[in-house]
Write a structure and sequence with these properties.
heterodimer; A: about 500 residues; alpha+beta; Beta Polymerase, domain 2; Cytochrome-c3 Hydrogenase, chain B; 5-stranded mixed sheet; 17 helices; 18 strands; about 40% helix; globular; B: about 325 residues; mainly alpha; about 70% helix
Chain lengths: ~500, ~325
């Protein structure tokens, strides 16, 4: 296969679907599907998403060399599709989830076990041809590790702290972890089923609640997908306010994370101070926009709440204060030898894996993967804003903390710039009485990484099918790789430095 | 009459450590909270927690044997006796002839041994992790502790705590390098034995990083109350030990009379408060170390103890 063939050319050989914006979607033949699979294996493409519909599967790809994004759809008349799992490990869990939800089987896939379906749903394949479950599910076979003096440590799904549920099965030799296997899906809420047939308003609210800490990013991604599908132009002021909201969310989460990582090394001093900073961001958000976590502030067509006049000086002051207060904390982090001893060289993710899995956010950027959806593919107003995407190559816990610290600095500068250049005007475009039919897609940078939303609107304006892909899908498997050879007691630290979403992943 | 008073005073000391130890825990937590700019729970919270636990029913794992049920009582009594033996506000009490440093080390050692067995008893994986980590730490902490004991006994000519304290109160002792080394060693051992940061984190919710908490994860109700109380007693014991050996000032002599006892008590409370405060400050300023760094940390304590002994052999005046 010629590696220089661009994604759009390959997709062009299939049957291009009209009304899919902003990137092309094509129904492809099994041969082209295979070609794309080989391209994935050779790292010509990066996997962006893989999701199902009752009759077909969709594969979203990103070609780094040309910057092209495209979706390939393969009809599955026989209820199966050629698996990508062997050549492209990040596709494995997506395939298993797809099989659980739609009943479309990845043929000759590497892993036929269920993923989201733990055998406790009353029906099977809720999004495909739903059927009532007949008997209890088979017990879930965990992957084995054999050898002398190996022992298993099952952790979760209910943990000692108040965190989301997930099961971790360690196989360890003393303290050294030989294998970690995750089992997720405990917080499956059936969001994609709920979105089927939902009106745009209720769908937007639901999308903003997929993962509570990324409410802005999800709502933005959903809104952008709707706007792409219907060709709605968003007013300039709304675009800038959206960026402001997104950066406030990023700030709050990064402050929280920096503190939480240190707290997992029992350095609670850092968490206490970072929690104060996070709280200040949340309170400023509540004062300016009426919601601490900024839920429902972004809606298709624009934003729902305008920044009040007194908000501008308040946020300006917030930025100045945060910058002043965060500086000594960075020094504290950098100068506490006992803390550095824990974070440096712990949980190293090599850049090869980060690239293979297309890891987004701080996980990828701490391991040398220079990708930020705000830059590439990019969306307004970031194309007109000055900011840097910090990239480090160490790949350890320390690097992931430093990426966050650098991003805090970038976000603070971005907020200042947005406030200075905020255009005036309306904040929400009038939606046509009926949006649709149409298909839209959006890639938005949340604090964790790139969130993908794909949707199809029916002719009556309701959502026909909507898929939301959390960045955690490509980060959870890497956590398994990172802990191998580490010690059991260092897992919480590695886990917190990844801070993957359970809710966004289990959906 | 004197005998009765002696017994009374000794009894008072036993009850004193028991009554004080939750307050010490509460005080350390309060100071830590204030250092983290939190308001923190009341210093009396540990008492309420103990009452709550005592009123709760005990939930036992199906695989728990008799050992699991007996261990809390064993651990509690062994640690209480050890804590009651350390002179707090007065030396020369009725039971002081038993207050031998080696006996105290042995009592604490057996308490730990039984607790580790109980951790393994249920067969849950966390108990096993906790027990194995605890024994690793103990196997390093105990020799270091004994080195410290030898340093003191070489100096004072006895391993009886009361006599050691009295010897150190005499004028001829002065500043000694070996004493300083022994104090540092004891401090490190105290941190490790009580599961404080940087060796263990008593406040953590991360089950995979726990040491002491992982061992007792299966306990509930009054069993847990006894184990928590024993942990509090142990912290009091180590602080009392540090106070008794290295800052014996203010301690009442044998049959010194009520006013001296009162003065000794006030001095003791002040020492505990200072010790608790310093512990909180130390814990706030340091991150927990990797599990496999603990051996280096405790190895340092062992070396300090050894150095103290060597110095004493080189010159009796060091």
């Amino acid at each position: 296969m010629n590696q220089t063939v661009s994604l759009s050319e390959t997709l062009g050989r299939g049957e291009l679907i009209g009304g899919h914006r902003p990137w092309p979607r094509a129904v492809v033949t099994p041969e082209i599907w295979q070609e794309l699979a080989i391209g994935l294996g050779k790292r010509v493409y990066t996997l962006l998403g893989l999701w199902g519909e009752p009759e077909n599967v969709n594969l979203a790809l990103f070609q780094e060399a040309s910057g092209e994004i495209g979706v390939a759809s393969l009809n599955c008349p026989d209820g199966g599709f050629p698996s990508l799992g062997h050549v492209c490990p990040p596709a494995q869990r997506l395939e298993r989830a797809l099989a659980d939800l739609f009943g479309l089987q990845p043929l000759t896939g590497p892993d036929a076990r269920p993923w989201l379906d733990h055998g406790r749903w009353p029906i099977r394949h809720p999004l495909g041809a739903a059927q009532t479950r007949s008997g209890p599910a088979d017990p879930y076979p965990f992957l084995t590790a054999e050898g002398e003096s190996l022992h298993q440590i099952p952790v979760g799904p209910v943990h000692a702290g108040i965190i989301e549920p997930g099961h971790f099965r360690f196989t360890a030799n003393g303290e050294t972890v030989v294998r970690l296997e995750e089992r997720l899906g405990y917080v499956h809420k059936g969001i994609e089923t709920l979105l089927r047939g939902a009106t745009l308003d209720s769908a937007a609210r639901l999308a903003g609640r997929v993962s509570g800490d990324s409410s802005v990013a999800y709502a933005l991604a959903f809104a952008r997908a709707v706007e792409a599908a219907c060709g709605i132009a968003v007013p300039e002021r709304a675009l800038w306010l959206r960026a402001l909201l997104a950066e406030l969310e990023r700030l709050a989460n990064h402050f929280g994370d920096v503190g939480a990582v240190c707290n997992d090394a029992a350095f609670s001093l850092m968490q206490a101070h970072c929690a104060v900073l996070r709280e200040r961001v949340l309170r400023a958000s509540a004062t300016c926009f009426g919601h601490r976590l900024l839920m429902d502030r972004i809606a298709p067509g624009g934003v729902t709440t305008d920044l009040p006049a007194e908000g501008q000086p308040l946020l300006h002051k917030l930025v100045v204060d945060l910058r002043r207060q965060f500086k000594p904390l960075i020094e504290l982090y950098d100068n506490t030898a006992s803390l550095q001893d824990r974070t440096v060289a712990t949980g190293v993710l090599n850049s090869e894996l980060a690239r293979q899995f297309g890891a987004g956010g701080y996980v990828g950027r701490a391991s040398g993967r220079n990708f930020d959806a705000r830059r590439m593919p990019g969306y307004p107003p970031y194309d007109r804003l000055r900011f840097e995407v910090p990239v480090l190559s160490a790949g350890d816990v320390d690097a992931r903390v430093w990426i966050r610290i650098h991003e805090v600095g970038q976000s603070l500068a971005l907020i200042e710039e947005i406030l200075d250049r905020l255009p005036s005007g309306p904040i929400r475009a009038d939606l046509p009485p009926v949006c649709g039919p149409g298909e839209g897609m959006a890639l938005v940078e949340g604090f964790r990484g790139d969130i993908l939303v794909w949707l199809r609107l029916a002719a009556d304006g309701a959502v026909e099918r909507c898929h939301l892909r959390d960045p955690s899908w490509f980060q959870w498997p890497l956590l398994e790789a990172v802990i191998e050879g580490n010690i059991v007691a260092d897992f919480p630290l590695c886990n917190k430095s990844f801070n993957c979403s359970y809710s966004g992943h289990d959906l | 009459m004197a005998l009765i008073i002696d017994w009374l005073v000794q009894g008072f000391q036993m009850l004193l450590v028991l009554a004080l130890c939750p307050l010490l825990i509460g005080f350390v937590r309060k100071v830590k909270a204030r250092l983290l700019r939190r308001r923190g729970a009341s210093v009396l919270q540990p008492y309420r927690d103990l009452r709550r636990l005592l009123l709760k029913e005990v939930v036992l794992a199906e695989s728990a044997s008799w050992l699991f049920r007996v261990v809390p009582y064993l651990v509690f009594s062994a640690v209480w006796v050890a804590a009651a033996l350390v002179p707090t506000f007065a030396s020369g009490l009725a039971f002081n002839w038993t207050a031998d440093l080696i006996a105290i080390v042995a009592l604490l050692g057996s308490a730990r041994f039984f607790l580790a067995l109980a951790g393994l008893d249920v067969g849950a994986s966390f108990g096993g992790i906790g027990s194995s980590r605890e024994m690793m730490i103990a196997s390093l902490a105990e020799p270091a502790m004994l080195m410290m004991v030898f340093t003191l006994s070489l100096l004072a000519g006895t391993t009886q705590l009361s006599s050691v304290a009295q010897y150190l109160l005499t004028d001829g002792v002065g500043l000694r390098v070996s004493l300083l080394l022994a104090m540092l060693a004891l401090f490190i051992v105290a941190i490790a034995e009580n599961g404080r940061i940087p060796v263990d984190n008593p406040a953590t919710h991360l089950e995979l990083t726990m040491v002491h908490e992982a061992m007792v994860l299966e306990y509930s109700g009054r069993h847990l109350a006894l184990i928590e109380l024993a942990a509090a007693l142990k912290l009091t014991l180590y602080l009392s030990l540090l106070a008794c050996v290295f800052t014996p000032w203010g301690m009442a002599e044998a049959q010194a009379g009520w006013s001296a006892y009162l003065l000794g008590l006030l001095a003791y409370l002040a020492k505990l408060a200072v010790g608790g405060f310093l512990l909180a400050v130390f814990e706030t300023g340091i991150a927990k170390m990797r599990v496999f760094r603990v051996d280096e940390f405790l190895g340092a304590a062992l070396m300090l103890g050894l150095l103290g002994i060597l110095l004493l052999f080189v010159s009796r005046s060091l």
